[in-house]
Write a structure and sequence with these properties.
The protein is mainly beta and 490 residues long. Helix content is 4%, strand content 55%.
Length: 490
């Protein structure tokens, strides 16, 4: 019977995978410049998106904060006056309060640099604000991430020839700063070179640099004392390029992933590609994935936040540009790819697209509690005189893309469908099991639904009274064992 139940699970998952398993939200701004910098899932299962706002003189004036459902429905919005909205600032759930969210920003006022953390709840109510002076010998940072210690790791410009690495608390407290790091010849000191967490125990960071067409990793401890420099081996015959689109993510055990543009001589021409590479703790390439070989600049293109590593998946967001079949125009599509840990491609989605002089940028990528992901950025349909027209921001939420073999390995003797659900949630139990009790809890622990199934094999639960968001369903079987699963009410 369990084999039959597993077969049904695999069939349902395969059927879901054949459909379009994502939703897209667009917002057309009232200003000539609009940029979306990040996206997070809040504790109620809805998404928060930030949009930069400029006035008619193209001066930055603040942010719009939007609350949307994973299905693309706008629920609420809030305007927040701010400064220097160009900074690609982190946007995160409060690690010390699951019902709170943090929007960070760096700005300059009267020649003084500041760091600000704005706390808001799931209803977009501002609950607190922390403002501290950012270090007077550092420029506003452009590269940053949140490490496993819940500290903000930044890369800041010191002057035209040097930069430094900074570790600070979310309240703005300076915890560590590296010695000056010289700028490399021919590189952009503001944009290039990612930093990532190499290991959590001991806490170490890796900083990606290019030296003589090789990728090197400078290794720092938690106080940003430099420990070592490693040169990573090349992938096959490819030679790495210096690129602002390079990104890196650690695996937590000393291994890491890197995206890189690369080229090689083939015959009388140079062939280009974009690579996703997996390195082990010995800085050796274990796996490599090439997005394709081209005789001109790669048709695949990355943006700053294009890489996400979860427990069992690697997600890559990129753009694919090709010549339109009719005419001399071009078409650019946003593509999301999912790999397993061995860099085998498990699915990909071609989503929004623009034509001719249009452009797509991707600036945020986050994991969702249902196993899916969400991403955001901006797009425009054309430009004239350096100004954008038809400028939009977008947010895309993807459903759970776990493969059938990953789902069938679950010990849960039941499946819930549809998930997300709107009016009715159905539960089917394995044939050789018997269910006694089903309960649904909100994320703050409140019991919102309880039922005793009429049959031991299935149950249908009316959820029309539940507000949209994320919930936990718990099932107790006749042998006393309990199982749980997350569900989304839309």
């Amino acid at each position: 019977m369990k084999k039959l139940f597993t077969t049904i699970v695999i069939f349902l998952l395969a059927l879901a995978a054949s459909a379009q398993n994502y939703s897209t939200w667009h917002h057309h701004g009232n200003y000539q410049l609009n940029q979306s910098y990040n996206i997070i899932e809040m504790s109620d299962g809805n998404l928060a998106v930030r949009e930069a706002v400029f006035d008619e003189n193209l001066d930055d004036v603040g942010f719009n904060l939007y609350k949307i459902t994973p299905q693309g429905e706008l629920l609420d919005s809030l305007f927040i006056e701010d400064h220097n909205v160009y900074s690609l600032n982190p946007f995160l759930r409060d690690p010390y309060n699951s019902n709170s969210n943090i929007m960070t920003s760096f700005y300059t006022l009267d020649d003084v640099n500041y760091y600000k953390a704005t706390y808001f709840d799931d209803n977009l109510n501002i609950t607190d604000e922390v403002v501290t002076e950012y270090y007077d010998n550092c420029d506003i940072p452009r590269k940053f991430f949140i490490d496993s210690n819940n500290d903000l790791i930044c890369r800041s410009k010191l002057d035209d020839d040097n930069f430094c690495l900074v570790r600070m608390g979310l309240d703005g407290t300076l915890k560590a700063q590296s010695n000056p790091i010289p700028k490399q010849s021919g590189t952009n000191i503001v944009l290039e070179h990612p930093i990532f967490e190499l290991s959590s125990e001991p806490l170490q960071y890796g900083y990606v640099l290019y030296r003589d067409n090789d990728i090197t990793i400078d290794i720092y401890d938690e106080n940003f004392t430099k420990l070592d420099t490693k040169t990573v081996n090349r992938f096959e015959d490819w030679q790495f390029y210096t690129s602002i689109y390079t990104n890196a993510c650690g695996t937590g055990d000393g291994g890491f992933f890197i995206t890189a543009e690369a080229g090689k001589i083939q015959g009388q021409s140079i062939v280009h590609t974009c690579l996703l590479l997996k390195f082990n703790a010995d800085f050796e390439i274990e796996r490599g994935y090439s997005l394709g070989e081209f005789n001109s600049y790669p048709r695949w293109d990355f943006d700053n936040r294009n890489l996400l590593v979860t427990d069992n998946s690697i997600y890559l967001v990129c753009k694919y540009k090709k010549t339109v079949e009719v005419g001399n125009g071009s078409k650019t599509s946003l593509v999301v790819k999912r790999f397993n840990t061995d860099l085998n491609l498990t699915w990909e989605e071609y989503t929004i697209e623009v034509v001719d002089s249009g452009e797509i940028a991707n600036y945020g990528l986050t994991a969702l509690s249902n196993g899916g992901i969400a991403t955001t950025g901006w797009l425009y349909s054309g430009s004239s005189g350096g100004y954008y027209s038809s400028k939009d921001i977008y947010a895309i939420a993807f459903d759970n893309y776990l493969s059938a073999d990953e789902n069938s390995a679950s010990e849960n003797p039941f499946i819930c469908y549809p998930n997300p659900a709107k009016d009715v949630l159905n539960i089917s139990f394995a044939d050789d099991t018997e269910c006694q009790y089903v309960a649904i809890y909100s994320l703050d622990g409140r019991l919102v639904v309880e039922t005793f199934p009429e049959t031991s094999q299935s149950s249908s639960i009316n959820i029309t009274n539940l507000t949209p968001g994320l919930y936990l369903i718990k099932v107790r079987m006749s042998d006393g064992k309990e199982f749980s699963e997350k569900i989304i009410v839309k």
